[in-house]
Amino acid sequence: MPKHAPARNNTAAARTTTSASAAGTRKRMLPKARPAAAATPSSISGKMVAANTRPATDGDLWMFGLNNWGQCGRPTFLNPCYGPDFITLPPETSVVAAAGGEHHTFALLDDGRVLAFGRANGCELGLGAESGSILSVDNPTALPAFSAAVRKTAVGAHHNVAITEDGKVYRWGTNDMGQLGTGSAPFKPDDATDDLPSPLAFDFSKSGATGIATACGAQHTVLLLHKPATAPASG
Fold it and tell me: How far from each other are the two terminal CA atoms of the chain, in whole angstroms?
């Protein structure tokens, strides 16, 4: 079965100022979302408390709700996650921003790294060529290094954008509606796609433009760029 339209269930997608609403009609079908496990608040809360015994601090990332793809940063058998609790982060780091897609989550750390977790079979997590064969990742995982520290991120239903400190704009994930701006049609006779399994930077070398801000809808992307008065000389 073709793999890249969003799965449906009775839970709305997470929403932040830069995240997407639930996805609209799509031309291809992803596998159906995993059914919610028959769990109760009491059976889950004990495991949560055992996982995090230290007091909460600034920069903790709190997660709760649907977790059928690990989008709350916990094993999928803990689904739903009824009570808010913070997830384990790399030592000596804190979260400065976070956003959620339909079934995946990104957290921007204070050192400029990006953690990804949740659904992965639509290349949502940017984990490389193997993304299509990985269903999900419930352990927050750092993306490969960008050209510089990431300062802004935006998340769509199944795609993502990041802007680094040097002004480069990266995008990755599902491209079934052209939301990655590759400039090519995503549907081909052999059902191949132009999905991007790893972060790929736009080439603004001719104009010298740099990224200022970005936002994602469910299946579209908005970029705000700064263009210098004089374009850089071509080499």
Answer: 47
Whether 45 has a pLDDT exceeding 50, the answer reads: no
How far is Cα 100 from Cα 188, in angstroms, rounded to an integer?
A: 29
What is the pTM (predicted TM-score) of this model? 0.73
Neighbouring CB atoms inside 10 A of 198's CB total: 15
Q: List phi, psi (to 5°) of 105.
A: -135, 145
> What tokens appear for 99 in the block?
């956003």
Beta carbons of 26 and 176 less than 8 angstroms apart: yes
Residue 56 burial by Cβ neighbours in a 10 Å radius (0-12, 13-18, 19+): exposed
- Give the span between the Cα atoms of 13 and 10, in whole angstroms: 10
Residue 111, classed as helix, strand or coil, is coil
Query: Which residues on neighbouring strands pair with residue 162, listed in sequence order?
Result: 153, 170
Sequence-distant (6+) residues with CB within 8 A of 54 are none
pLDDT, residue 93, reads 84
Structure tokens at 172: 């990755």
CA 229 to CA 89: how far, in whole Å?
42
CB-based contacts of 53: which residues, under 8 Å, 6+ apart? none
7-20: per-residue pLDDT in tens?
434 333 333 334 44
Q: Compute the C-alpha angle 133/81/115, nearest 5°.
A: 50
Structure tokens at 154: 């935006």
